[in-house]
Amino acid sequence: MHTRRFWAARFIGAAIMVLAAGCGSAGGSTALTATAPKPEEPDITVAAIPAVDLAGLYIALNRGLFAQQGLHVTIVKIPSSQAVVTDQLKGQVDISAGSYVAYIAAQAAGARFRILAEASTLAPNTRVLVVTGNSRVATAAELAGRKIGVNGTNSIGTLLISMLLAAHGITPGKVRFITDPGGFPVMPQHLLDGDWSAAFLSEPYITAAGEQYGEQVLADLDQGAALNLPIDGYVATQAWAQQHPKTAAAFTRAIEQGQAIANRDASAVQAAMARYDDLPPQVTAAIAQAGYPVGPVVEAGIQRVAIAMLKFGLLGSQAATAVEQGTLARSMADLAA
Predict the structure, then answer these.
(1) Element of type H or E holding 18
(2) Could you give the CA distance from residue 316 to residue 17 in angstroms, rounded to a whole number?
(3) Distance between CA 17 and CA 51 in Å, rounded?
(4) Among 229, 209, 211, 94, which Cα is nearest to 160's?
(5) Residues 260-284, mean pLDDT to the nearest whole number
(6) Nearest to residue 9, comparing CAs of 197, 219, 283, 261?
(7) What per-residue confidence (pLDDT) applies to 140?
(8) Tens digits of per-residue pLDDT, 276-298?
(9) Residue 83: helix, strand or coil by DSSP?
(10) Beta bridge partners of 77
(11) Helices marked H in the chain — which ranges?
C-alpha cells in the first residue's frame, strides 16, 4: 500500500448532471466542415461517466469540435454504463460512453450495439483499489472475505479486481462486491464510514478522495493480465447507427480530434476536467491520465475484454462459443458486421 499526495476535491457531490455543447462552444470554429456531409440529426444526447478516461469527449465539447461537425451535443453524466444500457436500448439516449463490460454483456444477451470509437485504455494509476488511511488491509491478498465497493454490478471494476485477486490466488467468490447507485462520487464516504474494506475508483476521484478523505491506494489495477486493457468506448445501438450514419461519422470525427489532443496535450485534459468536473488546478495537475486511442476500433482489444469476462464469470457459458470464435467482439467492433 502506498500514499499519494492529494489536493482538495470540491467536485464530489451529485453523480448526474447535464452539459450542452451548442454553436457558441469555446475554443473552436462553429462552422460545419466544408467537406463533411450534414448530419441527419444535429441534436444528440450522450450519456457518459464523469472520468478522465473520457477526456476526448470533454475536450471535443470544450473546444467546439462537435459544432464544427454540425452537431449540438448534450452530455448527461451517469454513474456507470450499466445505468444507461436499458434506456439506450429504448431509444432514450443516442450515444453512451463507458466501460465495454456492460455493452459486451448486453450484446451476449441479445442486444445489438456498435462501438463508434474507442475512448481509453488502462494506464498506471487510472483505476485503483483504495483503502482508508488507517486500514489494516495492506495487500490485495488480505481482501479475502471482505466487502469491496464498485460503481456498477458486473462492471469493469469487478472484472479488474477479479483479475487482480486471481493473481494473488483468490477467487472472486471469496469477496463481496457492493454497489452504490451514486457511483464514484459517493464511494469514498462509504469507505470512510466502514461500509467496505476497499473501494474501486477511477481518476479524478482517486486524486480527490485522498485529500478529502485521507484514503490510500492499495493496488494499481493496471498490472498483470490487465495491463493496458481497453476500458471505455463510445457506443450506439446498431439501429441508431444505421439510421444516422452521417451523424455517427460526424460524432466520431470530433471524438478522434479530441482524442488526438488528449494524447499530445496533458494541459487540455486538465482544462477539460477542471471545467466539467469543477476541479481546482491543484487536483487537475495531479491526476493520472489514460491512454486515448485514435483510429478504427481494434477488434482484438474488444476480444481481450470478452475473454476476460468469460473467464471470471461476467458472461455465462452460453456466450462461450461466440467469445471463443470472436463473433461477439466482431459484431460490436465492425460497423459492417
Answers:
(1) strand 18-21
(2) 34
(3) 13
(4) 229
(5) 85
(6) 283
(7) 94
(8) 777 777 777 888 999 999 999 99
(9) helix
(10) 48
(11) 55-62, 65-68, 82-89, 100-108, 156-167, 187-192, 205-213, 238-243, 245-264, 266-276, 281-284, 299-311, 320-324, 327-333
Grid cell in block for residue 227: 495491463
Specify the CATH architecture of the domain 18-121+230-333.
3-Layer(aba) Sandwich (3.40)
Element (H, E) at 143: none
pLDDT at 21 over 90: no
Q: According to the model, what pLDDT value does residue 25 have?
A: 38
Placement of cell 485514435 in the chain: 294
Among 100, 261, 277, CA closest to 206: 277
What DSSP string runs through 56-79? HHHHHHHTTHHHHTT-EEEEEE-S
> What CATH architecture does domain 127-226 belong to?
3-Layer(aba) Sandwich (3.40)
Give mean pLDDT, residues 241-267.
Answer: 96
Q: Could you state, in order of their start, the residue ranges of all structural domains in the chain?
A: 18-121+230-333, 127-226
CB 273, CB 58: distance < 8 Å: yes
The one-letter amino acid at 179:
T
Question: What's the pLDDT tens digit per position in 187-208?
Answer: 999 999 999 999 999 998 899 8
Q: Please, what is the average pLDDT of the chain?
A: 87
